Every structure is written in C-alpha cells, then in structure tokens.
C-alpha cells in the first residue's frame, strides 16, 4: 500500500502547473521548495494514468510510508546536517553537552569552557524552559540567549537551544545555531511550521508516547516547508515500570536507520533520568552508530535549578569522553545493522 | 510532604506586599488574582515562622499536591463552570457534540440543527485542526469560526473549539464561548498562558501519556493566570494492546473527584477510536457521574475529512440520548464514590 | 500471508495417514481429534500441490491468523459453550459471581444463596489462590473445593474455580463444572495441556500484558487437545497511568468478535480494581454484547481475605442485576458491530 | 510503613515455639529454615509488645518492603550464588551463553566447544520450551537434557536450563546445575515452590509486565522454602513502541542494587529481540555493574528452530568477549551508584 507520493520537477519548472493539474484528483498535494529543487508531494498515491497526463517531470514515485520526504524510499543516501563547521550524519558522532537550564553567567561560561576543552562540539542550554509546574523555574528567556551567545563567542561551539512559542522563533533563531523542538512540542504544529520556515537546522525530540511513524510525520511538517536540516533526537518512551517516559528506546535508532535518511542523536540524560546510567547508555548508543549524543552537564548538579539528578558533573563528562575515545580505538567503525 | 502552599489575602490587601516578604525564602512564590480575590501561591511549603512574620491574611495553608489551586485541599466544594446558560459541575451532565472538523456550511448547520433538536447543550467543531500528517486536512481556520458562529446563531448552543497557536487565542476567543486545549497541547505552556489570560472558559484535554498529576499541573498554568473556568476532559491513554492512546481511562474520573474541585467530562470518541464503542462507554461514564460528554457526530461519517471511523451518525447520537434519558429515570443520582 | 492451515477429514478417516504424508514438508503438522471429528493442523501454509497429493479430505484451508482452530476463518458461526444447563455464546449474557476466595462455610453458602436468589447463573470462588506474596492467604485448597460443591448442591449453580498446578487438574476437575486458568497462567503451557485434556469447559483469562493474538494462541493450546469448550475472559491490561494491569480493555471484545468464534466474558472486578467502577463498566460490557460477566461479591468486602476493595457487597450486586434487567428492557438486542 | 517482619532465631531454637506464640496475632507468620539458620517471617509488622512477649531471639526487625527476606534491609551484604566453581555476586560478571533451544547433538556440542574456548563460564540451552504457539517446536525434553549433560562433560561448563512444570523439577534438577524459571512463569507459584524445595540454584526471570516489587515477591516464594541461591534476570518490559515486552530495563539493575542483596544478570537477547543490539546493550549492562550476562548464541542463527533473529553467531559472541575484555582493562571497577 502507498501512503504518499513525490513528483520531482526539472529545474526551472513551475510546480504550480503540476499542482493545478493534480489538485482535483489528489487534494492533499502541495508544493515543496528547497534551494534549486522543487516537488509536489501528497498523501495517498498517484496512478500511472494521472502521471501520464502531467508535463514531463524528473521523477515521480509512490512511497509506502506516510512521511514521503523523510523516507529512505525517497532518498537513499543519508542526509548531512551542518551547523557551522559541525556535520551530523557523516559517520562520526557529534557530542552536544551543556546544562539543562541557563542559570547564570558563571554557570554557563564555566561549563562551556570545560566542555570545549574536552572536545565537546556543540553547546546546549535552555533559555525558555517547558516545566510541568508553573511554580518551577521557567528560564532566563532573552537574558539566557545572550549568555549562550557569549558562551559561543568564548569557545567557538555552536549553540542549540529550545524554542517553545511560534512567536519566539525569530528571536531564538537570531541567537541560536540550531533550534530544538522539545518532546512536549513534537506535535505542536504551528511551532513546527514556524521553525520549518526559519530554515535553521532543527533538533526534533520524540514525544515519550509517540510511535516512530508519528515522529517522522512531525519531521515531515518541517520538510514540507523546505527545511531539510533536521536531526532526530530519541529521549525515552513510556514503559510498564515507571511510566514517566524515561525508557531510552535504542531500538528506535535501528529502526530509523532503515526508515529515514535523517540523522539521529541520543539523549541518555532524559532517557534515563539518572546520572549513574548516562555514561553506560551513551556508550551503547555509540556502539549502535548514533550520529550524536545530547547530554546534560552542570558544574554542581545538586544545586541545579532543573534536572540535577540526571546531569553529569564535569568528572562524569570527562569519563564519557575518555571511554568514547577508547571505544573508538577498539571499534573503529560503528556496528553494521545486518538483518 | 507538602508540595505547595497558598496564602489567601483579605479583600483590598496588596499581594505584592506579601510577595516581597516571601520572595527571598520562597522564590517560587507568585501572585494570583481573580475577580475580588487574590493569593500568593508557590511550590514547596511555608513554615509557621514565615507565616507569623507576614501581615494578617485570610488563611494560609500548605498543600500536599503539586497543584495547589487545582486541589480539593484548597477548595472542598466543586467548581461550577459556566458557558452562557450551561453549567458544568452542578450534578447534571452536559452533552457536547458536533463534528470533528468544520467542513462545510451544510455539514455544520445540518448537524447543529439535528443535535439541538435532540437536547444537545453545546456544539463542538474544529476550525484549526492538529493533524499527525501535514498532508491531512488542516481545517477551515477563520472560515470555520464563522460557520460555528452561524451554528450558534441558528440553535442557541454555545460553541467550543480548539485553539492551537498562542497567536490565535484572541481570534478564536472572539468567536468561541469555550476554548479547547487539545491532547497534544496539554503541555504547550505558552498556549496555556495565553488561554489563561483570555479569561474564557477552557476545556483542557489530557495528553495520552500524562499522569493525572501532570494534567492537574497543566490546569495550574491556567489557574495562576486567575482563570478558574476550567473543565478537564479525559480522552484515552496509552496501553499495552494498541499503544495509540485510545484506552479511555474512566478510573481517572474517580481519582479526579478526590483530587480536584474542577469538573471532568469524558470523550468516548477519541477514547475508543471506534464508533461502535462510543455509546456503551458514554453510558459507563454517565453512571460514574461524569460532568459531561464530548462526542463526535457527523451527518455522513464515511465521508468525513477526519475521524470518520469514530464519529456517530445522527441515529447513533439519538440512541445515546435515548439511553441517557432512560438511565436517568432508573438511576436518579450519579453513583457514590465510597471507599 | 498465511500463518496456519487446517485439513478437515471425512468421518472414519485416519488422520495419521494424512500426518505421515505431510510430515516431511510441514513439520509443525499435528493431529487434533474431537468427538466425531478430526483434523490435521499446523503453522505456515500448505500449497495446492501438497494438498493435491493427499487422499480426498472434507476440506483444506489456509488461515491468515496464527491460531487456526480459534479463528473465525475456520468456523464462522459462534461456538456455544455449555456448563450444565448454562450456555455461553447464544446471545444472552451469563452472570457469574462469587467471592474472590473461599474463606469459610458461612461466607460461601450465604453468598451463594443470595446470588442464586437474584438470578446469578454460575458461582465462582477460589480454593487455590495465586497471590503475589507468599505471606498472603493461599486458599483453602481441598476444603475450599468441598465448600464449593456444597454451594452447588444448595443452589443448583454450576461452579467455576481456578486450577494452578497441572498436578491438581484431576482433583479440581472432579469438583468444578468449569476450570479457570488465571491471568498469570495464560501461558503456563503444561497447565493448558492438562486442562485441555480434561475435556472440562475452560474459562481462559487474558494475561495483563498479552496481545489478543498471544491470548488466542493460548486458547489454541486447549483446542489442539480437542477441547473446544473455551470461554475467553478479559480482565484488564497494562496502561500508562497505573501500570498494574487493571485497565479493562473493552476494545478486545469488539476485536475478538471478528477474530474468533469463542465466547468472551468480561471481568470488571479485576479490570478496574475498584468496586465503585464495577457496575458502570459491567453495563458498558453488556451494551457491547458480552457473552457474560464475572464479578466478585463478598458479604463483607472490608473483611475479605483477598480483593476486598474490588468486591461488590450484596447491595452492589443487586444494583447490577437491577440495571441489567432494565437495560435489557430498553435495548432488546446487543449492539451491532458495523464497520 | 512496614510490610513485613523477620524474627531471626538463635541456633538450636525451635521456630515452631515462636510461630505458636505469634500465630493468633500475626496469621501470615511462617517458619523459614536454611542450613544452620531459622526465621519466622510474615507480612505486616510486629509491635514491640509482641516481641517482648517472645523468648529471647537473635534479632527481630520490621521491614518496609513486602519482600522481607529478599530485601537489603534484612541483609546488607550481597548474596553470593555458587554454581559449581562459578560465583555470582562477587564483583566479576559471569558470562552465560548458548542456544535458545537444544536442537541436535552437533549444534549443542559445537556451540559449547566454541563458547568454552572463548571463556564462557556457563552454558544455557532449552530442553523444555515455552512457545506462544502450540505448532512451534516445543523442545527435545529428556533427550535435550542428555545433550546438555554431554556438553558439560565435554567443556566443564555448568548447565542452566528452564523447567516449566512442577512435575518435571526433579527430572530437570537431576541434570541441570541451575534451574531457570522463565518470564512467563515468574508468578507460577506451584513451580516456584517446587524449585525452591529442590535447593538448586535458580535463575529467576522477570515477567515483561512485572514491577520490581512483584518480581522480588516472586523471589520471596523461593526464599521461604529456604533456598537463597537465587539470581535475578532482567529480560525486557512492555513499552509504548512495540508493546511486546522487549525493552530492556537497565534501570532495574540500579533499582535492584538498592533494594535486594540478590545478584542480577541481564539478558540482552530477549531484552532487544535483535542481534544487532545485543552487544551494545550487553556492554551498557557491564558498565552498570551487572553480575552477569545471559546471551543466546547459535552456530547458524538463520536456521535456528527458535529465536534466530536475536541469536548471536560465533563471530558475534567473539566480538562481545573481545569488547568485554577491553572494557575491563579501561574501566577496572564497575560504576559506582551514588545518589
């Protein structure tokens, strides 16, 4: 069964011509434009008769998955996502680390300095914080963004930070190098649309109850805006013991390799909720060939304003890097995923 | 253990005086104002020594739940939520029905006319639709709101409709009598904040993976804005057979009775995903003393642009009403919830 | 895809002839004998070439489900299961009630007398009790069976009671009219085999984590012994809120109707764990056309040695019967399960 | 709150004296005897007044957990379980490997020979197989046991194999060095009782839906028979993506360290269901300080009669051992589990 189709146009063709020709038969069809490329994409399938009636196109294909642009059927080679000089999806895992929340100048800059010195490649930190309770620390907002920019200046590490409100995308995008869509917002469609339009690289976290298919359909909301710079991030799902969404689903990594061309990183901090488990599960993810890690690090986890119990301290991060390097020496290539 | 506190002020007192006196010791404290009432509320607890140092207040209490304003510990009597002449929480269940999506003038008006004639009290219908796939019908937006307003004009039924984007709250509130926050947006905090500030009555759906506590903390985001006109709506959770979040959690109704003063309605359409199960589970909810039902009805479910498989047709809705009325004759009062 | 096959023989044919002809090609094939009927059944499928090479048989069919004998593909008409004068699966729901555990002569006889007077059709009570803790009451064993026999003598109601140990099947079968296989033993294969061979009617409960398919494959273990007198009993599954396996899966009833010819009863006592929810969910099950109910009733639930919190008292049972009778008057036929 | 108590007797005291003195007040009390030690144990708690009325005992303690003998409150030091010369719980992880099912002499002996040569310490293999479908291969039974004994003879590795039926415990115990209770039988209480009485070392697998507490209460069934030679084995739980019980719960390892003195091993074969994930998750378990691994290995996984998709081939097992050895060189001690 087909769940979607893609018509890829020759350069210079006007996709609206195709759209008009299709619209009455395939109402879901829409135009997707990326630099120098254009497609008409929709759900369902298109029959050979319909295709035959169209002007000559580069290619036209039916896709079995309900996320045509995200699927490997559409694009066999893995997508490389670039954030400054960093590249996700080229075989070498990217280490992203930093505090859950931006709390103070000292905390941010001391953490960034330590991490950069140890080979961390990107810096994370929340300025706008989604918190279960309205009485919890909600983040430093604009002031937090300024501190992140200062950390980048100091260390050269690009910044990834979360955006919560479609109305804040422009503001956050003016500071961040990569926009994070949090687990709670995986199906916040107005936010996905705005972030897609920003053309910034995106880190799209999985909601703790979402199937892999629903997650890739969320990525499709970004793709239809022409934004292909998407990294998926697994951070734990619901399980029968402790149903809080903190069971890291490493099987998703294996599944996603087959289903999508987008890179995938693993967040063992949220995916375990326990700093003692972060390093072991990070190493398992590296052995499985993850495109990167996202880990929470705080200079003094016990004093953190959020997520202290799952944050590594500096020594914990050093242990992770040390083991990662040793592991690379003994297993030069990521594991094969044969049937 | 206490997870929150509430200090209730005498009329005319300035809550900022209390806030200033507390802030250094209880940084989570914040002012909540409702018409003619004001509180200072926060997480954690306040000790008798701190309370003793404050100006005389109406009452001051520590709350064991992490959702102080939503808890029954704060307010023993059930809240009544008014939407026009309709009251939720006064003992008689409110029937809300209508199509999943507003699709056309004929569809909306014929449905509204039929429902009103059968005793339906409120009309539902989506103008902004959150859809898993970007290729699915996304709703008629402004045009949909206008059709809902026309249905109200025609039948007198107040309208509840979903708002997805904090930037759309003003627009949707200008038409709707009650704003729905959908399951996917239960923890969309910017949206909760805007909807709270609108002072419109709110229908707050539960996310399919959320604990009852996380749900009530989402309600607390509305309450801290001074908006107490909240109706909770259960619509299905994740389970081991079919993990899609469609297992109606009627036990939540029993739990919520004890934990919160807010009214609770049940949505057996999303909570089953199967029109054959809607009426039986609706009757179970009525026997358990639900404050209302939210059901999807479509003139021709097979042709619906969304959720057709779970929508009742007119005859199905009539059967529900008929059974509900018979049931009221044979069980005059809702069931007791004794230990 | 086919997951199983059934070859039905003419009366008098020796199934071992067929088995021998098939065995090299289909090693899973085995002989199933019921009074006056015989089959050769296995997993996978048989090709027309293989079938052509066999002696003429009554019919030969490939089955898509991995539980060929339990599937509706094999037998379109619903199976009727007889326990004395009681028939499951003939359209009218069978009410089974009684205490969780047999505790004393007074308790058992007073309960049985009350239930019989109210129209209860079968009596349940546990003599061998599976308990999570070794320090909990483990049942009266043989003495419990004797008390159940006395209750039957007194009231005429047939008895269903649980058997835990394959070595006890003969003992329990010598007293009980129907053998219960509990949720924890749904995949206790030696027990299934012994109970199958006993040729007694069986009540097969679903394990709280089991898919409908795994459950029907457990039934298949009984069927391959030639025992077709099986009633399935749904009693709650694992869900994200409270993962203890107490979310009654009424959707299973709808699914099973399509997939199997075996009757299905609902246990709202274990399926909710809360006596306040038993009657409402029992009525929902009746509206969905369940073939029966299994409910726990105790003269003094607060003093029960097991499951007191979920047992109805006599007044609660009377309410259930009263509502059931009223419901039958107003909805003469069970609900249709149209697509 | 206390959920259990233990009274430890002086050597030579008759526990029945204590039992008689307690029985009227604490009906759950029972005698537990191990070589040279005896206790009276029960659920609930005993008050100082009751204790004061007893003859002088070695110690008497109330336990908060509902599994008193399994709890760390009862015994702070970790239990060492000995199987021949192998010791679980002494700090160095034990590698157990072998095929899912015993299929043939060649398969068993070639596998055992390979594993032993690579440093595998115990051999696993199923002679009695619990299979979802009655048409699946059910194991070689007695013949399988004989082949396992031959493998032991050949390699010196002790044997662990599953027992399904209480009536087979004596037979299986006459061959095996350690008895496995499978996930489906975690709450098969007659089986637990027989295996407890056999005094053989036990490998107790966790049911895929069971809480850690229910699992430890299952262990308590073995302990009350006086059998303290128990190793717990985690093998995957139910999760929202793919609810089949294959999400390895490594967090259980961390939890169990705090709650029980019994050793814990990890089964990454069943816990992932995918041979590509076995080695990475095995290494994560080793980094978390597991007391052992249980892995499925087959000379030709594609031809295996059961579980082929999750079995390592010989090269896969060699990779595991090689990485394990390197890991031991770079992380000499298992990770600390600090708060």
Which key features would you list for this structure?
about 350 residues; alpha/beta; 8-stranded parallel β-sheet; 4-stranded antiparallel β-sheet; 14 strands; about 20% strand; elongated
How would you characterize this protein structure?
Chain A has ten helices and 14 strands. In chain A, α3 links the parallel β7 and β8. The C terminus of chain A is likely disordered. Chain A starts with a strand and ends in a 9-residue tail after the last helix. The first copy, chain A, is 32% helix and 18% strand. In chain A, α3 runs parallel beside α4, α6 crosses α7 and α9 packs parallel to α10. An eight-stranded parallel beta sheet of chain A has the order 13-12-11-10-9-8-7-14. With 339 residues, chain A is α/β, with parallel strands linked by helices. The radius of gyration of chain A is 21 Å and the shape is elongated. The interface between A and C is small, with 5 and 5 residues.
Query: How are helices and strands ordered from N to C of chain A?
Result: EHEEHEEEEHEHEHEHEHEHEHEH
- The total of helices of chain A stands at 10
Tell me the number of strands of chain A: 14
Looking at the structure, what is the overall shape of chain A? elongated
Instruction: Give the strand order of the largest sheet of chain A, numbering strands 1, 2, ... along the chain.
Output: 13-12-11-10-9-8-7-14
What structural class should be given to the helix and strand makeup of chain A? alpha/beta
Our Rg estimate of chain A from Cα atoms comes to 21 Å
Helical fraction of chain A: 25-40%
Query: Poorly predicted ranges of chain A (pLDDT <50, ≥5 residues)?
Result: 334-339
List the quaternary state of the chains.
homotetramer
Proportion of beta-strand residues of chain A: 15-25%
Q: Main β-sheet of chain A, in a few words?
A: 8 strands, parallel
Q: Largest interface, counted with CB-CB under 8 A? A: A-B, 41 and 41 residues
């Amino acid at each position: 069964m087909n769940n979607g189709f893609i018509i890829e146009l020759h350069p210079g063709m006007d996709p609206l011509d195709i759209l008009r020709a299709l619209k009455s038969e395939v109402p879901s069809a829409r135009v997707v434009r990326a630099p120098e490329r254009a497609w008409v994409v929709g759900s369902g399938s298109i029959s050979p008769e319909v295709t035959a009636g169209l002007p000559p196109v580069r290619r036209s294909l039916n896709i079995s998955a309900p996320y045509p642009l995200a699927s490997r059927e559409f694009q066999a080679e893995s997508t490389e996502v670039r954030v400054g000089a960093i590249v996700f999806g080229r075989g070498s895992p990217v280490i992203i680390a930093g505090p859950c929340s931006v709390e103070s100048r000292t905390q941010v800059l001391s953490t960034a300095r330590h991490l950069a010195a140890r080979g961390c490649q990107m810096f994370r930190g929340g300025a706008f914080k989604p918190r279960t309770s309205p009485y919890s620390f909600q983040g430093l907002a604009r002031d937090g963004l300024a501190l992140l920019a200062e950390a980048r200046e100091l260390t050269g590490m690009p910044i990834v930070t979360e955006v919560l409100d479609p109305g804040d995308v422009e503001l956050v995008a003016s500071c961040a190098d990569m926009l994070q869509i949090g687990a709670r917002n995986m199906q916040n469609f107005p936010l996905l649309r705005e972030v897609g339009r920003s053309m910034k690289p995106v880190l799209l976290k999985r909601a703790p109850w979402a199937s892999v298919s629903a997650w890739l359909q969320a990525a499709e909301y970004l793709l239809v805006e022409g934004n292909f710079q998407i990294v998926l991030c697994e951070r734990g799902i619901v399980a029968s013991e402790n149903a809080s969404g903190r069971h890291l689903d490493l099987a998703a990594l294996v599944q996603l390799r087959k289903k999508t061309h987008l890179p995938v990183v693993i967040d063992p901090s949220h995916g375990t909720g326990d700093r003692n488990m972060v390093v072991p599960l990070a190493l398992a993810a590296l052995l499985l060939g993850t495109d990167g890690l996202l880990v929470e690090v705080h200079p003094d986890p016990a004093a953190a304003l959020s997520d202290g119990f799952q944050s590594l301290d500096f020594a914990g991060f050093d242990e992770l890097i040390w083991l990662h390097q040793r592991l690379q020496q003994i297993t030069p290539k990521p594991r094969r995923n044969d049937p």
